[in-house]
Structures are given as structure tokens and as C-alpha cells.
# Entry
Amino acid sequence: MTSIYVLEAHQKKGVGLSLMKAMAEAFISNDYDSVTLWVLENNLAARSFYDALHGKVVDRHESKEEDVAINELAYGWSDLHKIL
# Structure
């Protein structure tokens, strides 16, 4: 999967949390204990959501698309149980 987005009409209703918990449970059941995902740096709502789930910024990446800078942050969880 390369990206996922919860439509604004469905935000703040537990959809994102349910998706994150399902992801954590699936990874844990397959013997993974950590995960990293990327988010646009200017997506403050998503960043706040990941911060609330105890994610930590672990990397930053800048790319250009048609001369427009795209800045992304990597959020990581070294213990997926923190999401549950």
C-alpha cells in the first residue's frame, strides 16, 4: 500500500484509529514489532493524529514534482502495542 486517506466527512469518527489498530494487530500477528509511515509535512491533522498515537518523527524527505517541493516526515513506532 502506498497511501491511505480518510475522507474529511469520516474523520473524527474513529475510522483512522480502527485502521491503525487493525494494521498494528496484523503486523504484530506476523511477528513485526515496529512500523514506519510517511506523511506530508504540512498535513497537520494527520501529524496530530500520529502524535496522539505516540508516533515519533524519525526521518524527513524532500522531493520535487514539477518544481514544487514536497516535504514528507516519517513517523515511526518501535512498539506497535502503543497503538493498541
In short: The first strand starts at residue 35 and ends at 40. The helical segments are 15-29, 44-52. The first helix runs from residue 15 to 29. The two ends are 21 Å apart (CA to CA).
